[in-house]
Write a structure and sequence with these properties.
By secondary structure, the chain is of the alpha/beta class. It has one domain: 3-Layer(aba) Sandwich (Rossmann fold), CATH 3.40.50.150. The chain is built from 7 helices and 9 strands. It has helices at residues 3-23, 29-37, 55-61, 72-85, 122-135, 155-164, 194-204, and strands spanning 43-47, 64-69, 90-94, 107-113, 136-147, 173-178, 185-190, 207-214, 224-230. A 7-stranded mixed sheet has the order 3-2-1-4-5-9-8, with helices on both faces. It has a two-stranded antiparallel sheet with strand order 6-7. Helix 3 (55-61) links the parallel strand 1 and strand 2 (64-69). Helix 5 (122-135) crosses helix 7 (194-204). The longest helix is centred in the first third of the chain and has 21 residues, at 3-23. The protein starts with a helix and ends with a strand.
Length: 232
């Protein structure tokens, strides 16, 4: 990944880190259910661990947890929570997700929650999924979530783009502004259709064990896809 792209991503998430932490503390049920299904002997990597809202419950259950994030500010927030809970089985690493600094077949499970969709470029997103396959042990599992394209908030916007801007950029790309606590900072998202998400997973070589369309905030249309994957 080009250095300027990494730098821009890091600066974006650093700038909203404190505001993000103040508003994103409750773990998602789908993640807790997955964590609770893991053997207590598991070594788990939380990719895009953010402020640690899923990393902490994972560390409380599993043998060892490694959190990876592109934002040093979010990692610092996570570290403060790890220290507060006195968790000695947790390591935090500053890294992008296209070059995960682990050897092949290193971990039992991966959490990759609400982060894949922040990578610009289809090739890069598939590459990150292949990195997950690379670091997983045989029969290792991963839980991945992404935002959906046709959710309530952005449905009309993408219908309009379909007719007026189709072909100009990768369809599904959008800037979503963080406007809490007086901020106004654009964040890149690629919102997925179901077909595209399944195709990208298939290109990674990971097997789909379970797939769910979830309404976390939407009333009518699913706003998140969750996939449980396995390396065979």
């Amino acid at each position: 990944m080009p250095n300027d792209y990494i730098k821009n991503s890091e600066e974006t998430w650093d700038s909203i880190a404190k505001s993000f932490d103040a508003t994103r503390r409750k773990p998602w049920k789908q993640c807790i259910d997955f964590i609770n299904s893991l053997p207590k002997t598991s070594i788990v990597v939380d990719i895009g661990c953010g402020n640690g809202r899923h990393l902490i419950p994972c560390a409380e259950r599993c043998k060892k947890v490694i959190g990876i994030d592109i934002s040093r500010e979010l990692l610092a927030i996570s570290q403060s929570k790890v220290d507060k809970e006195k968790l000695e089985n947790t390591i935090l690493i500053h890294s992008d997700v296209l070059n995960i600094p682990f050897k092949d077949s290193f971990v039992d499970s991966v959490l990759y929650i609400a982060a894949l969709h922040n990578i610009k470029g289809k090739d890069r997103r598939i590459r990150s999924l292949k990195e997950i396959k690379r670091i997983l042990k045989k029969d290792g599992t991963a839980l991945i979530s992404v935002w959906t394209r046709w959710q309530d908030r952005y449905r009309k916007q993408f219908f309009k783009k379909w007719f007026t801007q189709f072909g100009r950029n990768e369809f599904g790309d959008i800037n979503i502004y963080w406007r809490q606590h007086g901020l106004n900072i654009p964040r890149f998202y690629h919102l997925y259709s179901k077909r595209e998400f399944l195709n990208d997973i298939n290109q990674s070589g990971l097997e789909i064990l379970d797939f769910q369309e979830i309404k976390l905030l939407s009333k009518k249309h699913p706003d998140n896809y969750f996939a449980v994957l396995q390396k065979n």
